[in-house]
Design brief:
This protein is mostly helical and 113 residues long. It has nine helices and no strands.
């Protein structure tokens, strides 16, 4: 149940202890960025159960937004070209909002004409 796992992670990331632990896991951050940048591919890899790509992308973006207050995670996110590409390519407003929070206000303003 990938969505259940991502939603549980997003909720746990609100607690400081968990945020510190998960925010320091660079492979987790890379996985979440992959889910945001290529949600269809990530959803297809969860072939055991039917997962909608948009829901997966939204849940992963929410995790990143919740983890972004941890300094190491925030620094990684600010340097991630994958997250910037995901923000630019996101069609869902909620995903854009979460990724904007994860990347900071500078990222959102850089998208404006």
């Amino acid at each position: 149940q990938p969505l259940l796992c991502l939603n549980a992670l997003a909720a746990l990331a609100l607690q400081e202890d968990c945020r510190c632990y998960f925010g320091a896991q660079m492979s987790l951050l890379q996985f979440l960025a992959h889910c945001c940048q290529q949600p269809s591919a990530a959803a297809a890899s969860a072939s055991a159960c039917s997962v909608e790509a948009m829901s997966l992308q939204r849940s992963a973006a929410r995790c990143l937004a919740n983890l972004s207050s941890y300094p190491a995670a925030s620094e990684w996110m600010a340097q991630s070209s994958a997250l910037r590409a995901a923000l630019i390519g996101a069609e869902d407003f909620t995903v854009r909002a979460y990724l904007g929070m994860a990347l900071g206000t500078d990222a959102e303003q850089s998208l404006l004409p």
